[in-house]
Amino acid sequence: MLFMDVHNHLPEGATAGDVAEAHAADVRTQDQYGVKYLNYWVDDHAGKVFCLVEAPDAEAAHRVHREAHGLVADEIYPVTQG
Amino acid sequence: MLFMDVHNHLPEGATAGDVAEAHAADVRTQDQYGVKYLNYWVDDHAGKVFCLVEAPDAEAAHRVHREAHGLVADEIYPVTQG
């Protein structure tokens, strides 16, 4: 299933570079859970991140974020791509 | 510039097909404003839509939605793609 997750508040001072490192950690962690983080978009001024992810369910996607870097998304939606 | 816009409340009963029609109307409208709606993701159960859009500024992106179908996004963020 395809999901879009939304992080509403990056940690104070986090940069796009920090998000890139977190994404790399997701990629190292995801295979064991059948998860694939496909792409992400960052607004570091607003502290917002959108992650597009293929996962068996929302909890599996959250688990990868939790184990990889601890920054679990605030919201997650099952989506179809237009 | 690249933006992610977020629609938080699709009109009651709107389906993924309705969103596809709205997107087609965006595509017919966008050129005159230098805007390009690139992709979108829909959760029709939650009434949520995420649109990825190239635009000279946020207002130009909103203008296309407003003229094409009237459904202006609730939020819009300048983003960098990871």
TrEMBL record, chains A, B:
It comes from the Bacteria. InterPro entries: SCO4226, SCO4226-like. This is Gualylate cyclase protein. Pfam families: SCO4226-like.
